[in-house]
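ESCALATION

Customer reports they have been waiting on this structure for their group meeting. Please prioritize. Original submission:
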Amino acid sequence: MVHRSELESLRREISSITFEILHLCKKRLDVAKRIAMVKLRASLPIEDSRIEENLRRRVIIFCREKSLHEDFCNALLELLIKESKRVQKEVMEHACTQMEAN
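Update from on-call: job pushed to the front of the queue and completed.
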């Protein structure tokens, strides 16, 4: 019984951490939306390979320092970047549609 109780407690903890991660993802995407508006006003493209590569290097260093598997970190970062670009594109397209309507 003690093992079951411990397992349930650990599962609750991992569930809580999962929702913390999702909350941070939401926060990250909110910032990506703001970035999209700045890029739109400055006529800048969504992608900036220099910034992405710099972030990739920093993530790899972080993963090594924290003993996280690099493949996992790279896959997660790629997912985060891909979603940020999708959101930025959506925001820019919506803003352009609004400007055309006016």
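Sent to customer with the following note: The chain has a mean pLDDT of 95.
Escalation resolved.
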